Amino acid sequence: MSAYIVDLDGTLFKFGTNDFLPGAKDFLDFIKDNGHQLILTTRRGEDWDYHNVFSKTKTLQALKELGIEYHSIVFEVESPRIVINDDGCSAINVVINDGIRKEDYMEKVDK
């Protein structure tokens, strides 16, 4: 089992919306179906409500309505984000609003 730490905007959702980007739903299904943990991070928070969708309350409501199951979520995470981990860590960088391709995450799966 792996833990996937995933940003919301520009990665799973088109920036400024609660609309899935290409491949995001398949990626989330892959995580759930394989028993991996999903930890979400986001700049969203109560005091930052760009396009009237980014508040913490509205984000939690959207995640529930979309059926997105996650282990935990961390709000108000600034960017850029710098991840420091031991050699058990991998990173997948995607282009903002370009979606997630299956080959991007499948090559990182433990065999």
Concise summary:
The protein is an alpha/beta fold and 111 residues long.
Task: Walk me through this protein's architecture.
With 111 residues, the protein is an alpha/beta fold. It has one domain: Rossmann fold. The protein has 3 helices and 3 strands. A 3-stranded parallel β-sheet has the order 1-2-3, with helices on one face. Helix 2 (56-65) links the parallel strand 2 and strand 3. The longest helix has 10 residues, at 24-33. It is globular and about 35 Å long. It starts with a strand and ends in a 5-residue tail after the last helix. The mean pLDDT is 87.
Work out the helix count. Answer: 3
Please write the CATH class name. Answer: Alpha Beta
First and last CA, distance:
11 Å
Q: Structural class, please?
A: alpha/beta
CATH architecture: 3-Layer(aba) Sandwich
Radius of gyration: 14 Å
Return the average pLDDT rounded to an integer: 87
Q: Give the strand order, joined by hyphens, for the main sheet.
A: 1-2-3
Write down how many β-strands occur, each being a DSSP E stretch of 2 or more residues.
3
What is the CATH topology assignment?
Rossmann fold
Query: How many discrete structural domains?
Result: 1
Low-confidence stretches: none
The amount of helix comes to 10-25%
Order of helices and strands: EHEHEH
Mind describing the biggest β-sheet? 3 strands, parallel
Q: Beta-sheet strand percentage?
A: 5-15%
Shape: globular
